[in-house]
Amino acid sequence: MSSTLKKAFPIFASRTERFHYLDSAATGQICAAAAAALLGYETTARANVKRGVYPLADAASNAFDAARASIARYIGIDDANEVIFTSGTTMGLNLLAHCLTAELAPGDEILLSELEHHSNIVPWQIAAARRSLIVRAIPVKKDGTLELAAIEGLLSARTRIIAVAHTSNVTGAISDTSRIAEAARAAGAYFVLDGAQALPHGPVDLKRLGCDAFAASGHKMFSATGAGIVWMNKELAHRLPPFLSGGEMIRTVSLKGSTYAPPPHRFEAGTPPIGACLAMGAAAEWLASLDWTAIESEERRLTRRLLDGLSATAHTTVLGPAGFCHRRGIISFDVDGVHPHDLCQFLGDRGIALRGGHHCAQPLMERFNLAATTRASLALYNDDADIDALLEGLESAVRLLR
Amino acid sequence: MSSTLKKAFPIFASRTERFHYLDSAATGQICAAAAAALLGYETTARANVKRGVYPLADAASNAFDAARASIARYIGIDDANEVIFTSGTTMGLNLLAHCLTAELAPGDEILLSELEHHSNIVPWQIAAARRSLIVRAIPVKKDGTLELAAIEGLLSARTRIIAVAHTSNVTGAISDTSRIAEAARAAGAYFVLDGAQALPHGPVDLKRLGCDAFAASGHKMFSATGAGIVWMNKELAHRLPPFLSGGEMIRTVSLKGSTYAPPPHRFEAGTPPIGACLAMGAAAEWLASLDWTAIESEERRLTRRLLDGLSATAHTTVLGPAGFCHRRGIISFDVDGVHPHDLCQFLGDRGIALRGGHHCAQPLMERFNLAATTRASLALYNDDADIDALLEGLESAVRLLR
Amino acid sequence: MTGMASNSLYNQAIIEEAKAAVGSGTIETPHVSVRCDNPLCGDRITLEALGNNGHLAEVAHRTRGCLLTRAAASIAARHARNLDTAGIEAALQQLDELLSGNKPLKEVWPELAIFRPVASVRSRQDCVRLPLQALSLALAKLGKTSNP
Amino acid sequence: MTGMASNSLYNQAIIEEAKAAVGSGTIETPHVSVRCDNPLCGDRITLEALGNNGHLAEVAHRTRGCLLTRAAASIAARHARNLDTAGIEAALQQLDELLSGNKPLKEVWPELAIFRPVASVRSRQDCVRLPLQALSLALAKLGKTSNP
Ligand SMILES: Cc1ncc(COP(=O)(O)O)c(C=O)c1O
Ligand SMILES: Cc1ncc(COP(=O)(O)O)c(C=O)c1O
């Protein structure tokens, strides 16, 4: 099946050398549908959106709204106007950290976790410093999942926000969103979900996940770089102040002061990354049309093969959940005595693309007492040949480099 | 000449119907070089930048740095690391408003002008409200240029920032940057230049313009939507705190606190809009290779034809400088008794793309006592046929709609 | 793509209706006064009304707007007398169906048919809606005042 | 594109030099101690040194890093005795020329030639520079202390 899927990704046909792309957690490859939407808009249908009335501009505005609607469907939201276009997850989390903390009082608390990506840590730290808030973090268990038993002890009457990743970009661990949502509801806190690593693995239903706000990136869900989305519940969106300001997000501007447009426009200052937004809509449409039961079972099968193979490799330790229920095919491992960058370089030169480093998750590295790991991350286009290549290459790397 | 140039823009060959694009101040059409860089990266060379070591990632990082260097050359900057990638001018001005005001004390003053785009007004207003700063504005003369004689009276010992547009997006008026730079230097204030409408008209030399910070958008200089740049002088860049935070802009992150990377990375949180950045570099390279003396004289000739034609059209008044020395080919006009949107719609249906509205410059509209204008904006691909079509179409529009 | 349909956007009927400007003016001591803006273009309609038992008795409007807004304001004013909430809702529904390119179930205000070409031009649809929304707002406001 | 050249990145010489780890260790009471980090990967070298009249007398380093960093640290330690600011500058220049793909004018530290393949892998060049920068930093710090 992945061979059919592979055909939907132009990069694979374009590579003549060996190419085993196992770095989709950093960025996914673009699917043909997204590439076509991007290129079609940029080269033959370009006009700015939201204000023009000539046919090309009207069509661009319509396409922009249609992309919003496609993404809304992909994340289980009825009202497309609840989808806010951003330039990516990082921007989205900055927006949420800024806007949600605007309402907080000194001493109010924000609960993160030890496995967060820096983009879901630093914006909250900066907001906390500005407004004298307290940041706490849910610890991570030895298997890479959240220690949710600790959550009650970490919540207080002052907890206003819980912000965690749906899926760890280091270990692939999936968070138990329903328990977190419940805890947030009980505490009267908003639940912010970092969905960067969730959307590449199929449609989500935000209503079921129970979050109040959500951020994700297009480039990780097989669309172009440069666009992402934030979703927040309607009540929040209508109440919160803007973050970025400028053109398109205002109602009136005078030199004495300005008033703001309703959401989503209030949160979309300036010319949006139109091409990448249209591409993200196209990617969402295409992804929504796939058979995710089949894709998931294939991802699990390959993940199992990889986990088994790694465990059988000398000097190699896998981080993260051993089971397949609470994880995605994002696998970090440590080869004792071999530096991740040497490993990535060595395998990279053999056509195997892996990522080595702290994966923008230094607190999690500290938790595991590692400076860095090597990560293989799977997506719907990976197949057995990729796993074989990695496992074989790893054998020789350990022999040579250790 | 513009017929040769026109060939470098894929949209014109793709349109089978009449197509006179006169809305380049809203967004320029993408040039083939930028489109190729965008598509090449997104579909056949995609990897995340800054951290990967496998060949595809190394190549992407190199291309990203090369794009930085191309843009640095286009704006006359020696050190490419002074170029900060953003998602556009609006984002860039938000960054500058946030970071530059972080150092100010209550009562400090910011001087804008009456002709600014909302993106160069609202971020300063928001920063001013947060930090109790005072915002003043240089008035605009009847001909659309800045009343620089008033500047001395507007400066005070507390003026810390002067932020104005290089070129008005409504009237095409060019600001006298050397006088403003001088005033800023004398006042000990930083001079921020909104260069959104400057870069499409040829390379600039920021050192000669005398500004301390500069923001612009790729999509207005014939590149993709979704990327832009900020430049600041080295001293500022090294001193200022970050704006957006998250991955790639840190040195170290722990749950106790984080430290930041040096510029440009400090200001580039998260996965950048890589495709659009590479496209912007390619556009800068291509633009830098053109004969701007010839292009400018052609733009002036067309602008003169258009100004003359509009003056000769019944009920029509042109805003902005009458001469050609202090303006670009961005021409706003008012047809007495005809609503700009009716005009734009009517002409749009005849293949002529114009923009009607307040052009995100409501204070300037107020200055001229208008709710909206109709704007024709020229770029290097426009020709006599575009001017003829507009002037002819306008005649019939006035006859029918008035 | 939308070229053909909107070519006929400025049909004679719309232009004439805009120029007719039925109801343009002011009321000396209105029961309610409302203002509606179109943020796209800064267009504005200021509508004053006298009420009568939950119905509109008289309206007058000052409309700064494009031909579409002015034509819609004129039609709205023509039907304002005796209009109640149900009536304006029915008219708005007819308009929305027209603008979605469908055939309206009920032709409550037949003149609205002149806006059929606007179905293909999404960016201008709010221009047509604005005057009807002003009427709706005026009626809502009237409901909250104790007018005769 | 960079595939061919970097295929030979892990030549026997680099691996052996890394494993040799010349100068690995600590000094009991160093005159100066410096720490250099590579933000790309969190690699770190901690270098301790004794000085003598503006020259290095003895160095020891603890290097947590990749083979490239470890090999460069080993070479650096081998040449540290009697090194002064001019000497480390010359070595850094030789390295930078190598890494730019040029033929260095002077071969101050011949062993640096093993890093020639790194010229085609920009993202790894800082790994090689790190130990030399640590030496340079130690010398600068030494200049500011009043050591014997
Ligand atoms: C869990 C998680 N959050 C946030 C981000 C940041 O996404 P972006 O770099 O697209 O802004 C990433 C990207 O690696 C991620 O994996
Ligand atoms: C003078 C000026 N400044 C700022 C902007 C904002 O640019 P962007 O929408 O690309 O962020 C514009 C765009 O119209 C402009 O013309």
TrEMBL record, chains A, B:
What domain of life does the native source organism fall in? Bacteria
Q: What is this enzyme's class at the first EC digit?
A: transferase
Q: What is its EC number?
A: 2.8.1.7
SUPFAM superfamilies the UniProt entry points to: PLP-dependent transferases (SSF53383)
Cofactor annotation: pyridoxal 5'-phosphate
An annotated GO BP:
cysteine metabolic process
Q: What keywords does the record list, in alphabetical order?
A: Lyase, Pyridoxal phosphate, Transferase
Reaction catalysed by this chain? (sulfur carrier)-H + L-cysteine = (sulfur carrier)-SH + L-alanine
Cited Pfam families? Aminotran_5 (PF00266)
Answer whether the UniProt record assigns the keyword Transferase to this protein. Answer: yes
List the InterPro entries.
Aminotrans_V_dom, Aminotrans_V_PyrdxlP_BS, Cys_dSase_SufS, PyrdxlP-dep_Trfase, PyrdxlP-dep_Trfase_major, PyrdxlP-dep_Trfase_small
What GO MF annotations does this protein's record show?
cysteine desulfurase activity; lyase activity; pyridoxal phosphate binding
- Occurrences of domain Aminotransferase class V (ranges): 20-390
- Family, similarity comment: Belongs to the class-V pyridoxal-phosphate-dependent aminotransferase family. Csd subfamily.
From the Swiss-Prot or TrEMBL record, give the protein name.
cysteine desulfurase
From TrEMBL, chains C, D:
GO molecular function per UniProt: iron ion binding; iron-sulfur cluster binding
SUPFAM superfamilies xrefs: SufE/NifU
**Sorted alphabetically, which InterPro entries does this protein's record hold?**
NIF_FeS_clus_asmbl_NifU_N
Q: Name the Pfam families on file.
A: NifU_N
Q: Name one GO biological process term.
A: iron-sulfur cluster assembly
- Where would one find coiled-coil regions in this protein? none
Q: Where is the NIF system FeS cluster assembly NifU N-terminal domain?
A: 10-84
Question: What name has this protein been given in UniProt?
Answer: Nitrogen fixation protein NifU
